[in-house]
Predict the structure.
Amino acid sequence: MRFLRLILIGLITMGPLAVEAQYLFVTNGDSLTITGYNGGSLDITTPAMINGLPVESIGDEAFSSYGLRSVVITAGVTNIGKYAFADCHALFSVSIPATVSVIGDQAFISCTNLNAINVDAQNQFYGSVHGLLCDHNQETLILCPEGKFGNLTVPATVTQIGPAAFDGCAGLTNVTIGSSVTNIFPAFGNDRALRSITVDPQNLFYSSSGGVLFDKAQSTLIQCPGAAAGTFSVPSGVLNIAPTAFVTCVNLTNISLADTVTNIEPGAFVDCLTLRSLTVGTQNPAFSDVQGVLYDKSQTMILLCPEALGGNFVAPDSVSSVAFSAFLDCAKLTNVVLSPGVTNIGDFAFFGCANLTSMILPGGVTSIGQSVFESCQRLTSVVIPEGVRSLGASSFFGCYKLRTLTIPATVTNIGEDAFGFCYDLTSVYCKGNAPAHQDSVFDYAPGATVFYLPGTTGWGATYDFNPAILWNPTAQLNGPGPDRSSHSFGFAIVGTSGISFLVEGCDDLTAATWLPLQIMTLTNGSVYFSDQSQTNLSQRFYRLRSP
Protein backbone atom coordinates (compact mmCIF):
# COMPACT_ATOMS: atom_id res chain seq x y z
CA MET A 1 0.00 0.00 0.00
CA ARG A 2 2.83 2.40 0.81
CA PHE A 3 4.44 1.78 -2.61
CA LEU A 4 1.11 2.44 -4.37
CA ARG A 5 0.60 5.66 -2.38
CA LEU A 6 4.01 6.95 -3.50
CA ILE A 7 3.18 6.29 -7.13
CA LEU A 8 -0.07 8.23 -6.85
CA ILE A 9 1.70 11.16 -5.20
CA GLY A 10 4.26 11.14 -8.02
CA LEU A 11 1.54 11.25 -10.66
CA ILE A 12 -0.24 14.08 -8.91
CA THR A 13 2.86 16.21 -8.57
CA MET A 14 3.89 15.65 -12.19
CA GLY A 15 0.47 16.65 -13.56
CA PRO A 16 1.12 20.40 -13.80
CA LEU A 17 4.56 19.83 -15.30
CA ALA A 18 3.07 17.66 -18.03
CA VAL A 19 0.49 20.33 -18.80
CA GLU A 20 3.12 23.08 -18.88
CA ALA A 21 5.24 21.06 -21.30
CA GLN A 22 2.45 21.23 -23.89
CA TYR A 23 2.92 24.98 -24.34
CA LEU A 24 5.57 26.99 -26.14
CA PHE A 25 6.37 30.30 -24.52
CA VAL A 26 8.73 33.24 -24.23
CA THR A 27 9.78 34.96 -21.02
CA ASN A 28 9.04 38.65 -20.52
CA GLY A 29 10.97 39.49 -17.38
CA ASP A 30 8.82 38.16 -14.57
CA SER A 31 5.97 36.83 -16.74
CA LEU A 32 5.36 34.62 -19.80
CA THR A 33 3.65 34.79 -23.17
CA ILE A 34 2.28 31.56 -24.65
CA THR A 35 3.43 31.37 -28.27
CA GLY A 36 2.28 27.90 -29.30
CA TYR A 37 0.73 24.60 -28.32
CA ASN A 38 1.89 21.03 -29.01
CA GLY A 39 -0.41 19.09 -26.71
CA GLY A 40 -2.91 16.43 -27.65
CA SER A 41 -5.99 17.70 -25.84
CA LEU A 42 -8.57 19.59 -27.92
CA ASP A 43 -10.36 21.02 -24.88
CA ILE A 44 -7.88 23.13 -22.97
CA THR A 45 -7.58 25.42 -19.97
CA THR A 46 -4.48 27.56 -20.31
CA PRO A 47 -2.09 27.27 -17.34
CA ALA A 48 -1.82 30.10 -14.83
CA MET A 49 1.89 29.40 -14.26
CA ILE A 50 4.72 27.89 -16.29
CA ASN A 51 8.10 27.25 -14.70
CA GLY A 52 6.97 29.25 -11.70
CA LEU A 53 6.17 32.40 -13.73
CA PRO A 54 2.65 33.75 -14.37
CA VAL A 55 1.17 33.58 -17.87
CA GLU A 56 0.10 37.11 -18.81
CA SER A 57 -0.35 36.94 -22.60
CA ILE A 58 -1.52 34.73 -25.43
CA GLY A 59 0.83 35.64 -28.27
CA ASP A 60 0.06 36.50 -31.88
CA GLU A 61 -1.03 33.36 -33.78
CA ALA A 62 -0.30 31.23 -30.70
CA PHE A 63 -3.05 28.68 -31.41
CA SER A 64 -3.60 29.52 -35.08
CA SER A 65 -4.85 26.61 -37.22
CA TYR A 66 -4.94 24.19 -34.30
CA GLY A 67 -7.89 21.80 -34.03
CA LEU A 68 -9.11 22.99 -30.63
CA ARG A 69 -12.75 22.49 -29.62
CA SER A 70 -12.95 24.66 -26.50
CA VAL A 71 -10.65 27.06 -24.70
CA VAL A 72 -10.82 28.42 -21.16
CA ILE A 73 -8.30 31.20 -20.63
CA THR A 74 -7.16 31.25 -17.02
CA ALA A 75 -7.37 34.38 -14.88
CA GLY A 76 -4.15 36.40 -14.97
CA VAL A 77 -3.96 36.69 -18.76
CA THR A 78 -4.27 40.34 -19.77
CA ASN A 79 -3.63 40.22 -23.52
CA ILE A 80 -4.87 38.02 -26.36
CA GLY A 81 -2.71 38.64 -29.44
CA LYS A 82 -3.58 39.20 -33.07
CA TYR A 83 -4.76 36.07 -34.89
CA ALA A 84 -4.29 34.14 -31.65
CA PHE A 85 -6.96 31.56 -32.58
CA ALA A 86 -7.22 32.26 -36.32
CA ASP A 87 -8.32 29.33 -38.49
CA CYS A 88 -9.27 27.13 -35.53
CA HIS A 89 -12.16 25.74 -37.54
CA ALA A 90 -13.30 23.24 -34.90
CA LEU A 91 -13.32 25.75 -32.05
CA PHE A 92 -16.82 25.99 -30.55
CA SER A 93 -16.46 28.09 -27.40
CA VAL A 94 -14.00 30.43 -25.71
CA SER A 95 -14.11 31.68 -22.12
CA ILE A 96 -12.30 34.93 -21.31
CA PRO A 97 -11.41 35.89 -17.73
CA ALA A 98 -11.91 39.19 -15.92
CA THR A 99 -8.21 40.06 -16.28
CA VAL A 100 -8.14 40.39 -20.10
CA SER A 101 -7.90 44.04 -21.17
CA VAL A 102 -6.78 43.67 -24.81
CA ILE A 103 -8.05 41.37 -27.56
CA GLY A 104 -5.94 41.75 -30.71
CA ASP A 105 -7.19 42.28 -34.25
CA GLN A 106 -8.85 39.26 -35.82
CA ALA A 107 -8.03 37.05 -32.85
CA PHE A 108 -10.87 34.69 -33.82
CA ILE A 109 -10.98 35.14 -37.60
CA SER A 110 -11.97 32.05 -39.61
CA CYS A 111 -13.12 30.17 -36.50
CA THR A 112 -15.99 28.97 -38.62
CA ASN A 113 -17.70 26.90 -35.92
CA LEU A 114 -17.21 29.30 -33.02
CA ASN A 115 -20.63 29.69 -31.42
CA ALA A 116 -19.93 31.49 -28.17
CA ILE A 117 -17.40 33.90 -26.66
CA ASN A 118 -18.14 34.10 -22.95
CA VAL A 119 -16.58 36.88 -20.86
CA ASP A 120 -16.39 36.90 -17.08
CA ALA A 121 -18.93 39.36 -15.68
CA GLN A 122 -16.22 41.06 -13.63
CA ASN A 123 -14.20 42.06 -16.72
CA GLN A 124 -13.92 45.88 -16.89
CA PHE A 125 -13.13 46.02 -20.64
CA TYR A 126 -15.23 43.37 -22.35
CA GLY A 127 -18.58 41.69 -21.92
CA SER A 128 -20.74 39.12 -23.68
CA VAL A 129 -24.43 38.64 -24.41
CA HIS A 130 -25.70 35.33 -25.76
CA GLY A 131 -22.16 34.46 -26.86
CA LEU A 132 -21.60 37.79 -28.67
CA LEU A 133 -18.44 39.72 -27.77
CA CYS A 134 -19.20 43.26 -26.60
CA ASP A 135 -17.57 46.05 -24.65
CA HIS A 136 -17.95 46.05 -20.86
CA ASN A 137 -21.24 48.00 -20.94
CA GLN A 138 -22.62 45.81 -23.71
CA GLU A 139 -23.19 48.92 -25.80
CA THR A 140 -20.79 48.07 -28.67
CA LEU A 141 -21.14 44.77 -30.50
CA ILE A 142 -17.53 43.88 -31.26
CA LEU A 143 -17.85 40.41 -32.76
CA CYS A 144 -20.50 37.91 -33.66
CA PRO A 145 -18.81 34.48 -33.66
CA GLU A 146 -18.69 32.99 -37.15
CA GLY A 147 -20.46 29.82 -36.07
CA LYS A 148 -23.74 31.61 -35.31
CA PHE A 149 -26.47 30.61 -37.73
CA GLY A 150 -30.10 31.32 -38.61
CA ASN A 151 -31.73 34.44 -37.20
CA LEU A 152 -29.86 36.78 -34.88
CA THR A 153 -31.24 39.75 -32.96
CA VAL A 154 -28.79 42.42 -31.86
CA PRO A 155 -29.15 42.82 -28.06
CA ALA A 156 -31.29 45.75 -26.92
CA THR A 157 -28.38 47.25 -24.97
CA VAL A 158 -26.27 47.71 -28.11
CA THR A 159 -25.99 51.23 -29.52
CA GLN A 160 -23.06 50.62 -31.88
CA ILE A 161 -22.10 47.77 -34.22
CA GLY A 162 -18.34 47.68 -34.69
CA PRO A 163 -16.19 47.18 -37.81
CA ALA A 164 -16.47 43.67 -39.31
CA ALA A 165 -18.71 42.57 -36.43
CA PHE A 166 -20.55 40.08 -38.69
CA ASP A 167 -17.69 39.34 -41.10
CA GLY A 168 -17.53 35.66 -42.00
CA CYS A 169 -20.85 34.71 -40.39
CA ALA A 170 -21.66 32.37 -43.26
CA GLY A 171 -24.60 30.70 -41.49
CA LEU A 172 -26.62 33.78 -40.58
CA THR A 173 -29.79 34.22 -42.62
CA ASN A 174 -31.31 37.27 -40.95
CA VAL A 175 -30.01 40.01 -38.65
CA THR A 176 -32.50 42.15 -36.73
CA ILE A 177 -31.34 45.55 -35.53
CA GLY A 178 -33.27 47.23 -32.75
CA SER A 179 -34.27 50.83 -32.14
CA SER A 180 -31.31 51.49 -29.82
CA VAL A 181 -28.58 51.27 -32.49
CA THR A 182 -27.24 54.69 -33.46
CA ASN A 183 -24.02 53.81 -35.32
CA ILE A 184 -23.08 50.96 -37.66
CA PHE A 185 -19.56 50.64 -39.01
CA PRO A 186 -18.95 48.52 -42.15
CA ALA A 187 -19.94 45.38 -40.29
CA PHE A 188 -20.80 42.75 -42.91
CA GLY A 189 -18.76 40.62 -45.30
CA ASN A 190 -18.57 36.97 -46.37
CA ASP A 191 -22.12 36.53 -45.05
CA ARG A 192 -23.18 34.51 -48.06
CA ALA A 193 -26.35 33.01 -46.55
CA LEU A 194 -27.64 36.36 -45.27
CA ARG A 195 -31.00 37.01 -46.91
CA SER A 196 -32.16 40.05 -45.00
CA ILE A 197 -31.24 42.79 -42.56
CA THR A 198 -34.27 44.02 -40.65
CA VAL A 199 -34.36 47.31 -38.73
CA ASP A 200 -36.93 48.25 -36.08
CA PRO A 201 -39.17 50.99 -37.58
CA GLN A 202 -38.64 53.01 -34.37
CA ASN A 203 -34.90 53.32 -35.04
CA LEU A 204 -34.08 57.01 -35.62
CA PHE A 205 -30.88 56.44 -37.63
CA TYR A 206 -31.35 53.36 -39.81
CA SER A 207 -34.04 51.62 -41.82
CA SER A 208 -34.51 48.61 -44.05
CA SER A 209 -36.47 47.82 -47.17
CA GLY A 210 -36.60 44.50 -48.95
CA GLY A 211 -33.99 43.16 -46.53
CA VAL A 212 -31.47 45.88 -47.49
CA LEU A 213 -29.94 48.21 -44.88
CA PHE A 214 -30.29 51.97 -45.44
CA ASP A 215 -29.90 55.14 -43.45
CA LYS A 216 -33.13 56.51 -42.02
CA ALA A 217 -33.91 58.66 -45.06
CA GLN A 218 -33.00 55.79 -47.41
CA SER A 219 -30.68 58.10 -49.31
CA THR A 220 -27.65 55.90 -48.55
CA LEU A 221 -27.57 52.19 -49.34
CA ILE A 222 -25.43 50.74 -46.57
CA GLN A 223 -25.59 46.97 -47.03
CA CYS A 224 -27.10 44.55 -49.51
CA PRO A 225 -27.35 41.09 -47.89
CA GLY A 226 -24.82 38.57 -49.13
CA ALA A 227 -27.36 36.07 -50.47
CA ALA A 228 -28.78 38.52 -53.02
CA ALA A 229 -28.69 36.97 -56.49
CA GLY A 230 -29.30 37.85 -60.13
CA THR A 231 -30.14 41.48 -60.84
CA PHE A 232 -30.38 44.09 -58.12
CA SER A 233 -31.86 47.53 -58.78
CA VAL A 234 -30.78 50.35 -56.51
CA PRO A 235 -34.04 52.14 -55.58
CA SER A 236 -34.77 55.63 -56.83
CA GLY A 237 -34.01 58.18 -54.14
CA VAL A 238 -30.69 56.61 -53.16
CA LEU A 239 -27.91 59.18 -53.49
CA ASN A 240 -24.95 57.28 -52.01
CA ILE A 241 -23.58 53.75 -52.18
CA ALA A 242 -21.62 53.11 -48.97
CA PRO A 243 -18.23 51.33 -48.72
CA THR A 244 -18.68 47.53 -48.76
CA ALA A 245 -22.37 47.94 -49.68
CA PHE A 246 -22.24 44.92 -52.01
CA VAL A 247 -19.12 43.23 -50.65
CA THR A 248 -19.07 39.44 -51.28
CA CYS A 249 -22.50 39.46 -52.95
CA VAL A 250 -21.12 36.59 -54.98
CA ASN A 251 -24.38 35.69 -56.73
CA LEU A 252 -25.23 39.10 -58.17
CA THR A 253 -24.81 39.27 -61.96
CA ASN A 254 -26.10 42.79 -62.64
CA ILE A 255 -26.53 45.94 -60.58
CA SER A 256 -28.67 48.72 -61.95
CA LEU A 257 -28.06 52.19 -60.54
CA ALA A 258 -30.93 54.63 -60.17
CA ASP A 259 -30.69 58.04 -61.81
CA THR A 260 -30.47 59.57 -58.34
CA VAL A 261 -27.15 57.92 -57.39
CA THR A 262 -24.36 60.51 -57.44
CA ASN A 263 -21.73 59.01 -55.12
CA ILE A 264 -20.18 55.54 -54.89
CA GLU A 265 -17.62 54.93 -52.18
CA PRO A 266 -14.46 52.86 -52.91
CA GLY A 267 -14.85 49.16 -52.12
CA ALA A 268 -18.62 49.09 -52.67
CA PHE A 269 -18.46 46.15 -55.10
CA VAL A 270 -15.46 44.17 -53.83
CA ASP A 271 -15.68 40.37 -54.30
CA CYS A 272 -18.82 40.44 -56.43
CA LEU A 273 -17.34 37.46 -58.23
CA THR A 274 -20.15 36.86 -60.77
CA LEU A 275 -20.99 40.51 -61.47
CA ARG A 276 -20.97 40.98 -65.24
CA SER A 277 -22.46 44.44 -65.64
CA LEU A 278 -23.24 47.74 -63.97
CA THR A 279 -25.97 49.65 -65.75
CA VAL A 280 -26.91 53.30 -65.34
CA GLY A 281 -29.97 55.23 -66.44
CA THR A 282 -29.41 57.84 -69.13
CA GLN A 283 -30.68 60.60 -66.85
CA ASN A 284 -28.06 59.96 -64.15
CA PRO A 285 -26.01 63.19 -63.81
CA ALA A 286 -22.85 61.57 -62.42
CA PHE A 287 -22.36 58.13 -64.01
CA SER A 288 -22.71 56.25 -67.28
CA ASP A 289 -21.93 52.79 -68.57
CA VAL A 290 -20.56 51.23 -71.72
CA GLN A 291 -21.13 47.50 -72.13
CA GLY A 292 -21.55 47.04 -68.40
CA VAL A 293 -18.43 49.01 -67.36
CA LEU A 294 -18.98 52.02 -65.10
CA TYR A 295 -17.68 55.45 -66.14
CA ASP A 296 -18.15 59.02 -65.04
CA LYS A 297 -20.78 60.95 -66.96
CA SER A 298 -18.40 62.31 -69.60
CA GLN A 299 -16.71 58.90 -69.98
CA THR A 300 -13.28 60.36 -69.35
CA MET A 301 -12.66 58.08 -66.35
CA ILE A 302 -13.05 54.32 -66.01
CA LEU A 303 -14.52 53.84 -62.53
CA LEU A 304 -15.20 50.12 -62.28
CA CYS A 305 -14.96 47.03 -64.43
CA PRO A 306 -17.15 44.18 -63.08
CA GLU A 307 -15.09 41.25 -61.81
CA ALA A 308 -16.74 38.65 -64.06
CA LEU A 309 -16.01 40.54 -67.28
CA GLY A 310 -13.50 38.52 -69.29
CA GLY A 311 -11.49 38.49 -72.51
CA ASN A 312 -10.35 41.74 -74.09
CA PHE A 313 -11.19 45.22 -72.90
CA VAL A 314 -10.71 48.26 -75.14
CA ALA A 315 -11.20 51.66 -73.54
CA PRO A 316 -13.11 54.36 -75.45
CA ASP A 317 -11.01 57.13 -76.97
CA SER A 318 -12.57 59.63 -74.55
CA VAL A 319 -10.90 58.04 -71.51
CA SER A 320 -8.06 59.97 -69.85
CA SER A 321 -8.02 58.36 -66.37
CA VAL A 322 -8.30 54.94 -64.75
CA ALA A 323 -9.68 55.23 -61.23
CA PHE A 324 -8.38 53.70 -58.00
CA SER A 325 -8.93 49.89 -58.13
CA ALA A 326 -10.95 50.19 -61.36
CA PHE A 327 -10.05 46.66 -62.53
CA LEU A 328 -9.50 45.15 -59.07
CA ASP A 329 -9.64 41.33 -59.17
CA CYS A 330 -10.89 41.17 -62.77
CA ALA A 331 -9.31 37.74 -63.00
CA LYS A 332 -10.96 36.83 -66.32
CA LEU A 333 -9.50 39.70 -68.32
CA THR A 334 -6.67 38.66 -70.64
CA ASN A 335 -5.91 41.94 -72.42
CA VAL A 336 -6.54 45.63 -71.75
CA VAL A 337 -6.04 48.35 -74.37
CA LEU A 338 -6.02 51.88 -72.98
CA SER A 339 -6.71 54.87 -75.18
CA PRO A 340 -3.73 57.08 -76.16
CA GLY A 341 -5.12 59.97 -74.12
CA VAL A 342 -4.82 58.21 -70.76
CA THR A 343 -2.51 60.17 -68.46
CA ASN A 344 -3.44 58.92 -65.00
CA ILE A 345 -3.73 55.40 -63.59
CA GLY A 346 -4.88 55.11 -59.98
CA ASP A 347 -3.38 52.93 -57.26
CA PHE A 348 -4.45 49.26 -57.31
CA ALA A 349 -5.94 49.80 -60.78
CA PHE A 350 -5.16 46.30 -62.08
CA PHE A 351 -4.56 44.53 -58.77
CA GLY A 352 -5.39 40.83 -58.99
CA CYS A 353 -5.95 40.66 -62.77
CA ALA A 354 -4.57 37.15 -62.62
CA ASN A 355 -4.91 36.33 -66.35
CA LEU A 356 -3.71 39.65 -67.78
CA THR A 357 -0.69 38.77 -69.92
CA SER A 358 0.55 42.07 -71.36
CA MET A 359 0.07 45.81 -71.07
CA ILE A 360 1.19 48.78 -73.16
CA LEU A 361 0.88 51.99 -71.16
CA PRO A 362 0.01 55.16 -73.10
CA GLY A 363 2.77 57.72 -73.60
CA GLY A 364 1.12 60.34 -71.41
CA VAL A 365 1.30 58.31 -68.20
CA THR A 366 3.74 59.90 -65.74
CA SER A 367 3.63 57.50 -62.78
CA ILE A 368 2.77 53.92 -61.93
CA GLY A 369 1.27 54.04 -58.47
CA GLN A 370 1.05 51.68 -55.54
CA SER A 371 0.16 48.08 -56.38
CA VAL A 372 -1.09 48.98 -59.87
CA PHE A 373 -0.13 45.55 -61.25
CA GLU A 374 0.21 43.63 -57.99
CA SER A 375 -0.77 39.95 -58.24
CA CYS A 376 -1.05 40.00 -62.03
CA GLN A 377 0.32 36.48 -61.92
CA ARG A 378 0.51 35.85 -65.68
CA LEU A 379 1.79 39.25 -66.74
CA THR A 380 4.83 38.66 -68.94
CA SER A 381 5.27 41.99 -70.70
CA VAL A 382 4.78 45.66 -69.77
CA VAL A 383 5.83 48.61 -71.92
CA ILE A 384 6.59 51.60 -69.68
CA PRO A 385 6.70 54.83 -71.70
CA GLU A 386 9.28 57.58 -71.51
CA GLY A 387 7.91 60.22 -69.18
CA VAL A 388 7.07 57.91 -66.29
CA ARG A 389 8.88 59.34 -63.26
CA SER A 390 8.16 56.81 -60.52
CA LEU A 391 7.23 53.20 -59.87
CA GLY A 392 5.15 52.97 -56.70
CA ALA A 393 5.41 50.56 -53.79
CA SER A 394 4.47 46.99 -54.79
CA SER A 395 3.69 48.22 -58.31
CA PHE A 396 4.62 44.82 -59.81
CA PHE A 397 4.58 42.75 -56.61
CA GLY A 398 3.66 39.11 -57.24
CA CYS A 399 3.96 39.28 -61.05
CA TYR A 400 5.41 35.78 -61.06
CA LYS A 401 5.80 35.44 -64.84
CA LEU A 402 7.39 38.82 -65.58
CA ARG A 403 10.81 38.02 -67.03
CA THR A 404 12.19 41.27 -68.46
CA LEU A 405 11.39 44.94 -68.07
CA THR A 406 12.80 48.17 -69.49
CA ILE A 407 12.74 51.21 -67.22
CA PRO A 408 12.93 54.54 -69.07
CA ALA A 409 15.48 57.23 -68.26
CA THR A 410 12.77 59.47 -66.79
CA VAL A 411 12.21 57.16 -63.78
CA THR A 412 13.87 58.67 -60.73
CA ASN A 413 12.28 56.68 -57.90
CA ILE A 414 11.28 53.05 -57.31
CA GLY A 415 9.13 52.16 -54.30
CA GLU A 416 9.43 49.41 -51.71
CA ASP A 417 8.71 45.87 -52.96
CA ALA A 418 8.11 47.17 -56.49
CA PHE A 419 9.28 43.82 -57.89
CA GLY A 420 8.80 41.66 -54.81
CA PHE A 421 7.99 38.01 -55.48
CA CYS A 422 8.67 38.39 -59.21
CA TYR A 423 10.17 34.90 -59.19
CA ASP A 424 10.90 34.70 -62.93
CA LEU A 425 12.36 38.19 -63.32
CA THR A 426 15.83 37.93 -64.83
CA SER A 427 16.60 41.24 -66.53
CA VAL A 428 15.75 44.86 -65.72
CA TYR A 429 17.13 47.31 -68.28
CA CYS A 430 17.53 50.87 -67.00
CA LYS A 431 18.06 53.63 -69.55
CA GLY A 432 18.95 56.41 -67.11
CA ASN A 433 20.77 57.15 -63.89
CA ALA A 434 20.23 54.86 -60.92
CA PRO A 435 16.78 55.68 -59.50
CA ALA A 436 16.43 56.38 -55.80
CA HIS A 437 14.78 53.39 -54.17
CA GLN A 438 13.24 52.09 -50.97
CA ASP A 439 14.29 48.87 -49.29
CA SER A 440 13.49 45.47 -50.77
CA VAL A 441 12.77 46.51 -54.34
CA PHE A 442 13.57 42.95 -55.47
CA ASP A 443 12.43 41.03 -52.38
CA TYR A 444 12.08 37.35 -53.36
CA ALA A 445 13.22 38.08 -56.92
CA PRO A 446 16.67 36.52 -56.53
CA GLY A 447 17.38 36.03 -60.23
CA ALA A 448 16.95 39.65 -61.27
CA THR A 449 19.94 41.47 -62.74
CA VAL A 450 19.88 45.22 -63.38
CA PHE A 451 21.57 46.43 -66.56
CA TYR A 452 22.58 50.08 -67.04
CA LEU A 453 23.95 52.10 -69.97
CA PRO A 454 27.34 53.78 -70.44
CA GLY A 455 27.38 57.39 -69.34
CA THR A 456 24.72 57.01 -66.66
CA THR A 457 25.51 57.67 -63.01
CA GLY A 458 24.83 56.35 -59.53
CA TRP A 459 25.48 52.70 -60.32
CA GLY A 460 27.60 50.28 -58.37
CA ALA A 461 28.19 46.55 -58.42
CA THR A 462 24.72 46.00 -56.97
CA TYR A 463 21.36 47.73 -56.94
CA ASP A 464 19.27 46.89 -53.85
CA PHE A 465 21.50 43.83 -53.30
CA ASN A 466 20.94 42.47 -56.84
CA PRO A 467 23.75 42.50 -59.43
CA ALA A 468 24.12 45.66 -61.53
CA ILE A 469 26.01 45.24 -64.81
CA LEU A 470 27.08 47.68 -67.52
CA TRP A 471 25.15 46.94 -70.72
CA ASN A 472 27.44 48.12 -73.53
CA PRO A 473 27.36 45.92 -76.66
CA THR A 474 29.23 47.80 -79.38
CA ALA A 475 29.56 46.91 -83.07
CA GLN A 476 33.13 46.86 -84.44
CA LEU A 477 32.66 48.32 -87.92
CA ASN A 478 36.28 47.88 -89.02
CA GLY A 479 35.88 44.14 -89.35
CA PRO A 480 36.08 41.96 -92.47
CA GLY A 481 32.71 43.09 -93.93
CA PRO A 482 30.88 40.94 -96.50
CA ASP A 483 31.88 37.32 -96.88
CA ARG A 484 31.09 36.63 -100.55
CA SER A 485 31.95 32.95 -100.29
CA SER A 486 29.23 32.37 -97.68
CA HIS A 487 26.87 35.04 -99.09
CA SER A 488 26.74 36.86 -95.77
CA PHE A 489 27.68 40.12 -94.09
CA GLY A 490 28.99 40.27 -90.56
CA PHE A 491 30.71 42.27 -87.88
CA ALA A 492 32.12 41.75 -84.41
CA ILE A 493 30.33 42.94 -81.28
CA VAL A 494 32.20 43.59 -78.03
CA GLY A 495 31.22 44.62 -74.51
CA THR A 496 30.73 43.33 -70.98
CA SER A 497 31.15 39.59 -70.86
CA GLY A 498 27.93 37.62 -70.48
CA ILE A 499 25.41 40.30 -71.47
CA SER A 500 22.69 39.45 -74.00
CA PHE A 501 21.24 41.65 -76.73
CA LEU A 502 19.03 41.56 -79.80
CA VAL A 503 20.32 42.43 -83.27
CA GLU A 504 17.65 44.13 -85.40
CA GLY A 505 17.76 45.07 -89.07
CA CYS A 506 15.99 47.70 -91.15
CA ASP A 507 16.05 47.92 -94.93
CA ASP A 508 14.33 51.32 -95.23
CA LEU A 509 14.77 53.97 -92.52
CA THR A 510 11.89 56.02 -93.86
CA ALA A 511 9.53 53.17 -93.00
CA ALA A 512 11.43 52.51 -89.74
CA THR A 513 10.41 48.88 -89.65
CA TRP A 514 12.97 47.02 -87.56
CA LEU A 515 13.07 43.25 -87.81
CA PRO A 516 14.48 41.01 -85.07
CA LEU A 517 17.40 39.04 -86.49
CA GLN A 518 19.18 37.25 -83.65
CA ILE A 519 19.51 37.21 -79.87
CA MET A 520 23.17 36.92 -78.93
CA THR A 521 25.34 36.70 -75.80
CA LEU A 522 28.83 38.11 -75.45
CA THR A 523 30.98 35.12 -74.58
CA ASN A 524 34.27 36.30 -73.09
CA GLY A 525 33.33 39.84 -74.10
CA SER A 526 32.88 39.40 -77.85
CA VAL A 527 30.83 37.64 -80.50
CA TYR A 528 30.61 37.71 -84.29
CA PHE A 529 27.27 38.46 -85.98
CA SER A 530 26.67 37.11 -89.49
CA ASP A 531 23.66 38.14 -91.60
CA GLN A 532 23.05 35.49 -94.25
CA SER A 533 20.49 37.53 -96.16
CA GLN A 534 22.27 40.89 -96.37
CA THR A 535 24.12 40.29 -99.66
CA ASN A 536 20.77 39.98 -101.46
CA LEU A 537 19.79 43.50 -100.37
CA SER A 538 20.91 46.90 -101.64
CA GLN A 539 21.29 48.16 -98.07
CA ARG A 540 20.55 47.20 -94.47
CA PHE A 541 20.90 49.10 -91.21
CA TYR A 542 21.48 47.44 -87.85
CA ARG A 543 20.92 48.29 -84.21
CA LEU A 544 21.46 46.54 -80.91
CA ARG A 545 18.82 46.55 -78.17
CA SER A 546 17.82 44.67 -75.07
CA PRO A 547 16.23 41.31 -75.82
The chain has a mean pLDDT of 93. Helices lie at 2-20. The chain has one helix and 50 strands. Residues 366 and 388 are 4 Å apart (CA to CA).
